[in-house]
Known about the structure:
The structure holds 2 protein chains of 2 kinds.
Chain A: H1 4-36, H2 54-61, H3 65-95, H4 101-109, H5 116-127, H6 134-141, H7 149-152, H8 154-179, H9 183-191, H10 196-223, H11 228-233, H12 245-255, H13 259-284
Helix pairs in contact in A: 1-13, 2-13, 3-8, 3-10, 5-8, 8-10, 10-13, 12-13
Chain B: E1 4-13, E2 16-26, E3 31-35, H1 42-50, E4 57-62, E5 65-66, E6 77-80, H2 92-102, H3 107-121, H4 136-148, E7 154-158, H5 166-183, E8 186-191, H6 194-200, E9 203-208, E10 211-216, H7 218-223, H8 228-233, E11 240-243, H9 245-248, E12 254-257, E13 262-265, E14 270-279, E15 283-290, E16 293-300, E17 310-315, E18 321-323
Helix pairs in contact in B: 2-3, 2-4, 3-4
Amino acid sequence: MATQASRAAGRLMISPAVILLLMWMIVPLGMTIYFSFLRYNLLIPGENPFVGLENYSYFFTDPNFWPSLVNTLFLVGGVLLITTVGGVLLALLLDQPMWGQGIVRILVIAPFFVMPTVSALVWKNMFMNPVNGVFAWIANVFGLPAFDFLAHAPLLSIILIVSWQWLPFATLILLTALQSLDSEQLEASEMDGAGPLARFFYIMVPHLSRAATVVILIQTIFLLSVFAEILVTTNGGPGNASTNLTYLVYSQSLLQYDVGLGSAGGIVAVILANIVAIFLMRMIGKNLET
Amino acid sequence: MGQIELKGVAKRFGDAEVIPPLDLKIEDGEFVVFVGPSGCGKSTLLRLIAGLEDVSGGKIEIDGRDATAERPAQRGLAMVFQSYALYPHMSVRKNIAFPLKMAKVPQAEIDAKVNNAAEILNLASYIDRRPGQLSGGQRQRVAIGRAIVRNPQAFLFDEPLSNLDAALRVNMRLEITELHNTLKTTMIYVTHDQVEAMTMADKIVVLQAGKIEQVGSPLDLYNHPKNRFVAGFIGSPKMNFMTGAEAAKHDAHEIGFRPEHIAVGETGDWKGKVTVSEHLGSDTFLHVDTEFGIINVRANGNVDVHHGDTIWMTPDRSKVHRFDAAGNTL
C-alpha cells in the first residue's frame, strides 16, 4: 500500500463493506432517534405529532427508571466481579498439570456454547425451582425449607445465571494469559524469596491485568444488554426487582405498544452505555497501553 | 562464604538419566564455569544447585550445611537467568528492591542497598524506567543488580550473555569478571561458549551428557586435556585429529595438533590445498584440504595464502596430544 494508486484502490475496495456496515448502524440509530421525538403509540392510530423531549421526560420520571438503572449497574458489576475473580481462580486451577487436562478444559468452556434462553431455563427449572430444583432438594436433605430464588432474590439469581454463562469466557482468556507468563519470571521470584501468595500478587496478577481488562471491557458491552435471561425467568419481576434498562425498554415499547417512549429509552440506554465505556476506559484502559 | 559441594548428585526425568551421580567441590570465591555442548545437562546442574529442580539422589552442601531439601530462597544463592526474567510491570528500582522487599528489609535499608547496587553497576540513569524501555545490556545489568542486593553466598549465571550482540558480549564479559574481582563472591557460570569459559573462569568444569569430563584451570584444560572430548571442545579453532599411520608414528590410536602448532612453509611434512583462508589481521585461519581431511591452521596475520593455493605444513611434534582407542589421553 505504498503508492497513491494502490491506496486509492484499497479504499475503493473496502468501501462497500464500510458503507454497508455504516448503513446497518446509522439507519436504525437514526430512526430510533427520530421515533423518540414523536408521540407514537400503536394503540392510538392517527397522527404521530412531534413532541420534542416529552418521551424522554416520561421515561426519566417513570417510577421504574431509577430502579432499573440501579439493577443494570448491579447486574453488570456483580457478574464482572464473579467472572473475573472466579475466572482467575479457575485459570490457576486449570493451569496445573493434571490427567485429562484437555477434556477438562473443553468441559469448562462448554457453558459458553449454551444459548442464554436455554441456560436460563435450565437454571430456572432444574436448579432454582423451589419444588423440583436441585437446590431445593439439597435444602430438603438438610431439613431446611426450600428457597425460592427467583421470587425472593431475583436479581441475585439472574447475576448467578449470567455469571455461569460468562465464567468460561473469562477463564479461557485468563488461562491463555497465564500460560504466556514466562516461567523464568516465576523462578526468579522464587529465588528472590517470594512465597506462593507473593508470587500470585506480585507476578501473576500484574501479568493478568491486561487480559482482565479485555475480559471486563468485552463483558461490559454484552452485560449492559442482558435480556433473554430476564425474559424467560422473572419477566423483570417481582415488581421491578429484576428489570434492567433493556427490559424496561422492551416492556414499554412492546408490552405497552409505545414506540416513542421505547425509542427514547433505547437512546438513554445507548448514552448510558457510552458513559460506562468512558468511565471504564479511564479506569482500566491504561492497562492496554504497552 | 560460599563453598558449595555436590556429593553424588543425580537427576532423572522419568526414565531418562540426565545427570548420573557426580561429585564436585566449588571453593569459596571461585569463578567456576560449567561448559559443554547443548543438552549436556549444565543448565540442569545449575538449577539443581539453585533448588529450582529436585535432585533424584545425592546431597548438596552449601558452607558445610546440607541444603538438599532447602527451598531456593533459603539457600542464599542469587541467579541471573538467560532471559533476565525481570518483572516487566516494575521499574528498575522496584525490580532490584524486590528480593529485599520479600525479605521484609526496612525501607531505608532497601533504598541504601538499591542505590549502592545502582552505583556499582552504573545504572542510576535509568533506574526509574521499566525493563521494556531498556536495551539488552541494560537489562542484563538490572538482572545482576537484583542478584547483588541480596548479598548472596554465590551467584549463579545461566548463559547470561547469549542474548546480547557480539560487541556487548565482550563488554559484559569483562564487567562480570571485574564484578567478581570486586565482590570476591563465588560465581557459577553456565555457558556453551568455550571462549567465555576460557576468559572468565578460575576453574572450568567440562560436561558431556551429564558427566564431568574434566575439571581444571583454563590453561590446564588447554595444555593437558584428559581426553579427546575435552581436547576437541576447548580451543578455537578446533584441534586437528588424525588416526592411522600418522598416529602410529607417535605410538597412539589417535593424535591431535592444535592449529597454532602447525607451521606453514614451502616444504614440510604434509601437503594440502587451501579451501578457505580467513584473514583476521592478527591471525589467519587456514582450512586446508589434505589426505587426513580438513586441517585447521592458525598462521600469523600477514601470511599471503588464498583459496586454491597448495601449501606445506609441519606440526610441532613436541606439542602432540596422544589418545588411546577409548579416547583417553596417553
